[in-house]
Amino acid sequence: MTIRRAERKDLESIVGMIADDPLGMKRESFQLPLPKEYETALKNILSDPNQELMVMEDENSEVIGTLQLSFIQYLTYRGGVRAQIEAVRIHKDKRGLGIGKMLFEWAIDRAKERKAHVLQLTTDKQRPDAIRFYEDLGFSPTHEGMKLHFA
């Protein structure tokens, strides 16, 4: 298995995985051709040195997992860098095989390489299996997250 930066050719696979669960189906629009907003978002992500959109390929070069790792510079922690994981998805046919753990191990190592002092994520409270998975990796629920949605 290979973990690499996403490319334009991966966009349909990534959006397909993001949309392929009960929560994703409510907020994504997986149709071919993909809506232009996904192309614009990918272009912005790929051009930002603080964004690392990654995919995992299997031995047949099929995309079977993805995550986005963001590095956020801020003034607290003496001008520290915080790493944020978003949009973790594993292809539905490949779940339970340790692929998510491999992606997270890569992300943890990468955050350390970039000298982040913390690696954080948010997860929907409606995903108890994901919460257990993150806790098994050593993540702890130290803060209460809050959101203000505009649309």
Descriptive notes:
The chain has about 150 residues and is of the alpha+beta class. It has one domain: Aminopeptidase, CATH 3.40.630. The protein contains six helices and five strands; from the N terminus they run βαααββαβαβα. It has a five-stranded mixed β-sheet with strand order 1-2-3-4-5, with helices on both faces. A hairpin with a 5-residue loop joins strand 2 and strand 3. The longest helix has 15 residues. It starts with a strand and ends in a 15-residue tail after the last helix. The model has no long low-confidence stretch (mean pLDDT about 95).
List keywords for this structure.
151 residues, Aminopeptidase, 5-stranded mixed β-sheet, 6 helices, 36% helix
Please write out the topology:
Blueprint: E1 2-5, H1 11-19, H2 22-27, H3 36-47, E2 51-57, E3 63-73, H4 76-79, E4 81-90, H5 99-113, E5 118-121, H6 128-136
Parallel strand pairs: 4-5
Antiparallel strand pairs: 1-2, 2-3, 3-4
